[in-house]
Amino acid sequence: MNRRVLGLVAAFVLAAFGTIAIVAYVNGADDRALAGEKVVKVLVVKDDVPAGTPAADLGDRVALREVSDKVKAQGAVTTVTALKNKVAGANLVPGEQVVEQRFIAPTAFRASGASVAVPAGLLSTTIPLDPARAVGGVLAPGSLVAVTASFKPDDNAPVVSHMTLRKVLVTNVQADGEATGDNKKTDDSTDKNSAEAGKAPTGEFLVTLALDAPSAERLVFAAEHGTIWLSLEPKDAPAGATKVITLGNEY
Q: What is the pLDDT of residue 165?
């Protein structure tokens, strides 16, 4: 009986040792593969990134990884700040390196007629806005916005403004007339070292948002009876304490 027990214990120990050895071997595979080669760091996609996603919203969907310099993609970046204010021009999948060429200006993405899928269970609601109320015309499908509604006074209510909706997905943007937020020089004599102002967009924007039913009602009510302002809002923007603003508490 004792021999049988000792045999089982010995078999268990050997099995455990073998498992540990295999895990150690696998974990060291990458190090062995990179041994003797120049190693560089690049951002690599961890989770799916839909087309139109602003670079500022990539967050933990990308991570810094070490790769052999031989397989580093041309234009690969190490920080999202290198992508500036651009958006993903196509869907990015896990495992691929983050390269500058895959990101384009929001206006270029919008001009392509691209849109993003509406999340399951949400409604698509479109509102017309002038450029000043649509973040100066730099909105693109995939952006997240906060919605502020303002109402003028009437016999029953005072003038009020309030940020009523947060982190709302923009699924489509259509522009009427010239609508570009790209920086373009309008005077050839402008000092190349000076800051250049973007050309102001003109025309009306049709912005489509993905909302649940109660939020869609609030949006439509504000569009019908008041005015709406959109603010670009990154995913990691703090919730913050908002309140109804009136003439009485503005200052």
A: 94
93's CB contacts (< 8 A; 6+ apart) are 45, 48
CA distances for 117 relative to 50, 166, 210, 215, angstroms? 9, 19, 9, 18
pLDDT computed for residue 204 by the predictor: 86
pLDDT in tens, 19-28: 555 545 545 5
CATH topology of domain 39-104: Type Iii Antifreeze Protein Isoform Hplc 12 (3.90.1210)
Q: What is the pLDDT of residues 160-197, one digit of tens each?
A: 899 999 999 999 988 775 444 443 433 443 333 333 45
pTM for this prediction: 0.60
CATH 3.90.1210.10 residue ranges of the chain are 39-104
